[in-house]
Amino acid sequence: MGIPVKLQAFEGPLDLLLHLIDKNKVNIYDIPIVDITRQYLEYIEELKGQDLNIMSEFLLMAATLLDIKSRMLLPKEVKEDGNEEDPRQELVDKLLQYKLFKFMSYELRDKQVNASRALYKEPTVPREVLDYKEPVNIEAMIGDMTLSKLHVIFKSIVRRRADKVDPIRSKFGRIEKEEVSLTDKIVFIENYAKENKRFSFRNLLESQHSKMHIIVTFLGILEMIKIGKIKMQQDDIFADILISAV
């Protein structure tokens, strides 16, 4: 039995297929291709005498349905993963994609309708109201506040700020990197040894103006002892160490 439909109700063959699926209340993932194809072809009969461009789209889908119908009558093909290939799968993917875009178009249409109902009104607040500023009551703001109370509040704020200061880190000065070259220090010791011939190890270290210079000087002395440019001598355990050039 034919289904009385109108061409204006459908935007294309996929739209018609979705209508037939909803009308028959079937699962889109398990389309009864025989019944849907029969109903689709009945609709094609209603299109006789319509525009050829429109007819061509519906005829192409009819040929696709007939191809799927014939493939379903044949033994099912098996994919590489061992599952059987469904001839309807490609058509189902197209229907799902079309249905998604169709619902998105409905959402955009609703937003357009809602936007057409939005009205904009220019501000009509009088200039006198905009320029009005509420007067400030100084006496109400101050209340019973006095200079002595303000002084107490100020001292408490200063005390809280002082408590937050780290007593140790606050005394740190600016830390700067001091560049001391071991090579330059070795040259300095070598020249110092040539001028003094025999000198005190303690006096040499005390002449350095920073801890970093003392450390590098000590390393320079060890290096010069290693290469045999100077030698050290200590007569007693707690006696001063004497250095002389070799």
Report on the architecture of this protein.
With 246 residues, the protein is mainly α. Among the domains are: 7-75 and 85-116, no CATH class; 182-245, Structural maintenance of chromosome 1. Chain E (Arc Repressor Mutant, subunit A, Orthogonal Bundle), CATH 1.10.10. It is 58% helix and 4% strand. The chain has 10 helices and 3 strands. The protein has helices at residues 13-24, 33-46, 52-73, 89-116, 127-131, 138-142, 147-164, 182-196, 201-206, 211-227, and strands at residues 198-200, 230-233, 242-245. Strands 1-3-2 form a 3-stranded antiparallel beta sheet. Strand 2 and strand 3 (242-245) form a beta hairpin. Helix 1 (13-24) packs across helix 4 (89-116), helix 2 (33-46) runs antiparallel to helix 3 (52-73) and helix 8 packs across helix 10. It is elongated and about 125 Å long. Mean pLDDT is 79; it is low at 1-8.
Keywords:
Arc Repressor Mutant, subunit A; elongated; disordered N terminus; mainly alpha; 246 residues; 58% helix; 4% strand; three-stranded antiparallel sheet
What is this structure, in a nutshell?
The chain has helices spanning 13-24, 33-46, 52-73, 89-116, 127-131, 138-142, 147-164, 182-196, 201-206, 211-227, and strands at 198-200, 230-233, 242-245. With 246 residues, it is mainly α.
